[in-house]
Amino acid sequence: MRVLGYTWAGVRTADLKSTTRFFADVLGLSAIHKGEGLVQFEMLSGQLFEVFGSKSRYCQFHACPVLGFQVEDVRAARKELESRGVQFVTHIAGKKSEAWTYFRGPDGYLYELWQTARPLKQLPPNPQPNRPPRSNSRLKPHRSQSC
Q1: Each residue of 24-67: pLDDT tens digit?
Q2: In principle, which of 3, 59, 91, 137 could form an S-S bond with 52, CB 3.0–4.6 Å?
Q3: How many domains does the chain have?
């Protein structure tokens, strides 16, 4: 197995609307997909960041942020990790070209193996290197949640 990098991260939220607004309006991330209980953002690098609301079937897996490690072959990678005693908590989901599975690390947290044809992109030059992030005064105050 060869880990190519991390290309995906996901978090859950109790307030999908405000959280989506924060990542889009304050951090300037581009929403590329909005589904039932889910918003998917794409970074300039091509990495994906997903936010799961309570209506998403994946919400239960994201008590803390979860990283998805990109691999060339998710089935072979899973088999290799299982032979090393790694505990998987889901079956492989998706299709042949894009598939994923969750496993538990030794720290007890969940991680994901992800097979995808999505390449990481070269970052474009920053046209405004010292520009402060956009702000949105309508956002709710941050409430700390522990993992």
Answers
A1: 887 788 999 999 999 999 888 788 999 889 888 887 777 778 88
A2: 59
A3: 1
Give domain status of residue 7, yes or no.
yes
What radius of gyration, in Å, describes the C-alpha atoms of the chain?
17
The CATH number covering residue 58 comes to 3.10.180.10
Q: Specify the pairing of strand 66-71 against strand 48-52.
A: unpaired
Residue with tokens 């304050």: 26
**Which H, E and C letters describe the chain, residue by residue?**
CCEEEEEEEEEECCCHHHHHHHHHHHCCCEEEEEECCEEEEECCCCCEEEEECCCCCCHHHCCCCEEEEEECCHHHHHHHHHHCCCEECCCCEECCCCEEEEEECCCCCEEEEEECCCCCCCCCCCCCCCCCCCCCCCCCCCCCCCC
For the chain, the residue count is 147
Q: Please give the residue range of the domain that contains residue 48.
A: 3-115
